[in-house]
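Ticket #4471: structure output looks truncated?

Reporter: J.K.
Steps to reproduce: submitted the chain below (86 residues) through the standard prediction queue, then opened the result file.
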Amino acid sequence: MSAIETMLEEYLASRGLERPSGSSARKVAEEAIELVEECSKESPDVAAVMHELADVVLAAAAVAAHYGFTVEEAIARKITYDSGRG
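Returned output as attached by the reporter:
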């Protein structure tokens, strides 16, 4: 289990929530919109930005787990893929 997955489990346990199915990336998109809205303010609140960014990452972790990989593995694959594009 990755560090992000562990944090997702801790977050869900602390709130008494079940793990979301992760079968849809819609939650990631919804959380990303909230992050964009916070970052677009004239004076974004850093704590609020952190909160919204965490929501995006945790939602992404649920999607990754559903498909059998971790966020870290996805990033590593992206780095490898993009390094061959230069």
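Triage note (M.O.): checked the attachment and the full token line is present. The two ends are 32 Å apart (CA to CA).
Status: closed, working as intended.
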